[in-house]
Amino acid sequence: MSSITACLFDLDGVLVDTAKYHYIAWKRLAGELGFDFTEQDNERLKGVSRMASLDILLEIGGMTLDEDAKLALAEKKNAWYVEYISKMDESEILPGALDFIQVLKARGIKVALGSASKNAMLILNNTGLTPYFDAIIDGTKTSQAKPDPEVFTMGAHELGVQPDTCVVFEDAEAGIEAATRAGMRSVGIGSPETLGRASIVLSSLEEFTVDRLLEL
C-alpha cells in the first residue's frame, strides 16, 4: 500500500450535521404535497443528488410529475434548506472534526472536500472551515453523482496526488463505493451495517487519530 498523502472529506454527516436541515426541508415539502416523510424514509436520500432525492420522495408519496414541476419543487426545497443553513456557525462542526483536520495539516497531509452539495461554500464559510482545505470539489464542479468516483478523482487531481495515496471520509454507502471505485481507501463515519465496505468504520472523528490513519 502506498503511504497516505491526502484525505478527502464528504461534508454532510462527516464534518457538519446538515442532514437534519435536509430532512426538515424534505419533510416540509412532503407535507405540502399531502403525505408524510419519515426519518426512515430520509435514510434513502443519504449521499444522493437533489433531483434523485426528489424522485425518491415522490415515489414514497405515489406521485408522478413532469420535469418542470419537479424542478420547481427541487428549487423550493433548496430555498428552504439554504434558509436553514444560512444560520449555521462553527458550533455545528461535528465533534473531533476540526481537531483532526488541524493535526493532518500539521503533519503535512493534504486536505480536500469531496461533496455533492451545491451549497458547500456557504456551509464552509459559515462554519469557518474554508481555510483548512487545499482543494474544494462540490456539486458546482461535478457532473456525476456518487457512487461515480468523479468527485474524488477530481480532488486527487487538484491536490496533485495519486488516488492510491488518498483516504476518503464518508457517511454514505454511495460515498464509500465511490472511494473504492476511485482506487482510494475509506473511513466510514456511522454504522458498520451500512458502511461495511469501508477500510474502517467509526462512530465519529472524535475517536480517530492520524497515527491510526497512517496504519490503514
From TrEMBL:
**Enzyme Commission number(s) from the entry:** 5.4.2.6
Q: Which cofactors are reported in the record for this sequence?
A: Mg(2+)
Relay the cofactor remark from the entry.
Binds 2 magnesium ions per subunit.
Output the GO biological process annotations, alphabetical, semicolon-separated: carbohydrate metabolic process
Stored SUPFAM superfamilies: HAD-like
Record: active site:
10 (proton donor/acceptor), 12 (proton donor/acceptor)
Would you identify the family this protein belongs to, as annotated?
A: Belongs to the HAD-like hydrolase superfamily. CbbY/CbbZ/Gph/YieH family.
What protein name applies here? Beta-phosphoglucomutase
Q: Which organism is it from?
A: Paenibacillus vortex V453
